[in-house]
Amino acid sequence: MTALGLARWQFAMTSLFHFLFVPLTLGLSILVAIMETFYVRSGNKDYLRLTKFFGKLFLINFAMGVVTGITMEFQFGTNWSEYSKFVGDIFGAPLAIEALFAFFLESTFLGVWIFGWKKLSPKTHAFVMWLVAFGTNLSAFWILVANGWMQHPVAAVLRNGRAELTSFGALISNKFAILEFLHTVTGGYILASFFVMGISAYHLLKRQNTEAFLKSFKLALIFALIASVFEVVNGDLHAYEVGKTQPTKLAAMEAVWETQKGAPVLLIAGIDEKAQRNTFAIGVPKLLSLLATHSFDGEVKGLKDLQREFERKYGHGNYIPPVKATFWSFHIMVALGFYFVFMCLWGGYLLIKNKVAHSPIYLRLMLYSIPLPYLAGELGWTTAEVGRQPWIVYGLQKTAEAFSPMVSASAVWISLIGFIVLYGGLAVADIYLLTKYARKGLEKDAVVEQELY
To answer: What φ, ψ does residue 300 adopt, rounded to 5°?
Structure first.
């Protein structure tokens, strides 16, 4: 494998592994803040015990997220130096703000939250957790402003082979970036909700602290229902924006080879990338045209026509993304999204009937569903990044042009193997710690109160 291919695998591995921790941080910070707020307002000790319990799991996840996130940025200077030179004027600003303001905010106040139980009033302590939640989500905003610009570059001019920013306001108001931010953080809220519901389901099945874990289950279920329904709506808006700004990605997401009006949404397809055709397909007629153009008879450009169009505009080359990977990543992610809505509606029905604690099939299914939002998130980023190829900055710089020219394949092999070993160890440690403390359950009131205000 070439040095470029290895570098792409390395960045994909490190970014996907890092993103295992990000969405739980985004959503669980809010859920823990809500639990502590409920305790402050009601005085109910169950919410206090839940705050301590899920707060401990949040801290484990947060620490892993910080460790795995640091290594990603170093790759911009080692493996992707040409990219750094090309976009440094634009990409550096949101990343610097994220590090100096958003991450500083969340990490500082997280320290205050950890060590402030006996030093702050209950209301102040709960407010600190809300600041942590705000900081984590603000951090995601700035990172996704940077990524959104890569997906749809705005407010930039090319001078001396570099992209230079012309309007900071246009950068942060980039519609693609805003929709990507909403889609990503909402996915994090779904993931964290299913994480809380799954762990609560485990203890409800064990008949441990039933009243307390019914409270956490109900809270997370309501949060998940709102988030999952919103995600479907936002997904439609995001797909429409992708159709306008990244037509090759949209065509790859639905395996559209030929330009057509009234294009269907394919449910399943046999994709022959070499022959550039589908050997078979089952779909919903005209639905893709409706989603992409808001018209049943709207025209959706096919990959073959887009290839010719891009060759005329950008010169000779292959501008068709890997279709199979993009298609299946997108379709499995969408299927999981509707599964989350179904599980939330089912849980809502059981909650209304007061049958949640007495529905072992549903509780087991919810427990086993904990990994599924993680899978959906990974597939979402696979769709976004693989579907953007061959561009690293859509329409401005190709991935091959962004690679560091002096980096050898052997050097990338060494770092790649090192990352695999390191991240493998971190994965084992994370799963062990989360499983250990999730199974342990709630502390007794007397133990919790010893650590309080």
So the answer is: -115, 120
**For 19-60, how does the pLDDT look when each residue is reduced to its tens digit (9 = 90+)?**
888 889 999 999 999 999 999 998 888 899 999 999 999 998
Helix spans in 206-286 (H): 210-245, 247-253
Mutual angle of helices 360-368 and 323-352, in 10-degree steps? 150
Domain count, the chain: 2
pTM score, whole prediction: 0.90
Bond prior to 390 in cis (omega within 30° of 0): yes
Backbone Cα Rg of the chain: 23
Within 294-322, where are the H helices?
303-314
Beta strands in 341-420 (DSSP E): 391-393, 397-398
Q: Give yes or no: residues 175 and 292 share one domain.
A: no
- Indicate the angle between helix axes 45-78 and 103-115, nearest 10 degrees: 140
Assess whether 110 and 203 both reside in one domain: yes
Asked whether 325 and 397 are in contact (CB, 8 A), the reply is no
Q: Is 443 exposed, middle or buried (0-12, 13-18, 19+ CB in 10 A)?
A: middle
**What is the token pair recorded at 146?**
């940077």
Within the chain, what is the greatest distance between any pair of CA atoms?
A: 73
pLDDT of residue 401: 87
Let me know whether 190 and 310 are in one domain: no
The domain of 366 spans 3-238+323-449
Do strands 391-393 and 397-398 pair parallel, antiparallel, or not at all (unpaired)? antiparallel
Pick from 273, 288, 321: which residue ends a domain?
Answer: 321
160 and 213 fall within a common domain: yes
* Whole-number Å distance between alpha carbons of 392 and 147: 10
> Do 451 and 125 touch, CB atoms closer than 8 A?
no
* CA 166 to each of CA 178, 362, 393: distance values in angstroms, whole numbers, following the listed order: 19, 53, 17
- Residue ranges, the chain, pLDDT below 50: 446, 453
Query: Are residues 159 and 226 located together in one domain of the fold?
Result: yes
Same domain, 166 and 23: yes
Domain boundary among 321, 353, 381: 321
φ, ψ (nearest 5 deg) of residue 370: -50, -45
Q: Is residue 252 located within the same domain as residue 298?
A: yes
